[in-house]
Write a structure and sequence with these properties.
By secondary structure, this protein is of the alpha/beta class. It has eleven helices and nine strands. Strand 1 and strand 2 form a beta hairpin. Helix 1 runs parallel beside helix 4 and helix 2 packs antiparallel against helix 4. It binds S-adenosylmethionine. S-adenosylmethionine binds next to helix 7 and strand 4.
Length: about 300
């Protein structure tokens, strides 16, 4: 079969079950042939070998059954960077890039207006593939005045940490990021400071607000999805740790789920009433992240 015919057949099979069928079909064929999507479009008349055709059809069958394309290609782009992913980690989502943008904005201001006398410590809680920590550290790596000192990428899942370490290595950030196991901020000593805390914790409710697509639940790790009864249990626990250990931080940013804005506001006013906090919406107008700035 020719490239254009295979793309068309992949497209018609996937489109029965999923949007973005043409893109998925292209991504998979480009991956098999080791070519770019642009190459496929420019060489539609080229013949594909029968073994590649068989492989393509088997991948399309997996997509039709609901498997994320990223687990088939083992790659996902996030904030313009390429990440290795497999079923041990959540597939990074585009909406999470908002956390990276906000932290970079904050750190750019530190570079511009700070006196540079003290470099900052950042922790990414529930790091998964390491996409957030790596994107931030990579952005500042080549700055003459990198504002970051140490970056900690923590997760409760050893499986996820293995994937994270692969990505740290692939991005050449071994000297900047340490990945290790911790139940949220358990690793911090009492009174210890951590200038920036970022978190995209599991936030799907197991009882209330159980908004989860079937293929997500079937294929992505449960430890990366569910956040207790109402979905916000892990955030509550992390806020409690901050309070009990009196963790000093300057900025904390976290992502939460659809319809959790009001509950998140209640939590923030309970735990951080002395501080400056706000909730921001994503591009679709859905409340998506909270930002807390500590007042000292
Ligand atoms: C929603 S995923 C986010 C992954 C990645 N940070 C991202 O933005 O794509 C949540 C991550 O939190 C981890 N996690 C779950 N419970 C945790 C806990 N108690 N302490 C630390 N990490 C936890 C999961 O293993 C998973 O990797």
């Amino acid at each position: 079969m020719k490239i254009c015919e295979l793309l068309k057949s992949g497209y018609s099979n996937i489109s029965l079950v999923r949007d973005a069928a043409f893109i998925d079909s292209e991504v998979v064929l480009a991956h098999i042939l080791g070519e770019t999507k642009e190459y496929l479009l420019a060489h539609g008349d080229e013949e594909v070998s029968s073994s590649d055709e068989l492989l393509f059809n088997s991948y399309i069958d997996r997509i039709v059954l609901g498997e994320p394309v990223a687990y088939i290609t083992c790659r996902k782009e996030f904030y313009g960077n390429d990440f290795f992913v497999d079923k041990r980690v959540l597939v990074p989502r585009p909406e999470t890039e908002m956390i990276v943008e906000k932290v970079i904005e904050f750190l750019e201001a530190v570079v511009k207006y700070g006196d540079g006398s003290r470099k900052l410590k950042l922790v990414d809680v529930g790091t998964g593939s390491g996409n957030i920590a790596i994107s931030i550290a990579k952005h500042f790596r080549d700055y003459l005045d990198d504002p970051l000192d140490e970056v900690f990428a923590v997760d409760i899942s050893e499986d996820a940490l293995e994937v994270c370490r692969i990505n740290i290595g692939q991005h050449g950030l071994e000297d900047k990021i340490q990945a290790f196991a911790s139940d949220l901020l358990e690793f911090l000593e009492e009174g210890e400071s951590c200038d920036i805390i970022v978190a995209n914790l599991p936030y799907i409710g197991e009882v209330e607000d159980r908004f989860v697509e079937k293929n997500v639940e079937d294929f992505e790790p449960n430890v990366a999805l569910f956040g207790g009864n109402d979905g916000l249990e892990l955030y509550k626990k992390m806020f409690q740790q901050i309070k009990e250990k009196d963790v000093k931080f300057r900025l904390m940013i976290g992502e939460f789920g659809f319809a959790q804005g009001e509950k998140m506001k209640e939590l923030l006013s309970k735990y951080f009433e002395q501080d400056e906090w706000k909730i921001e919406e994503d591009l679709a107008g859905i409340p998506r992240i909270f930002i807390v700035k500590k007042k000292y």
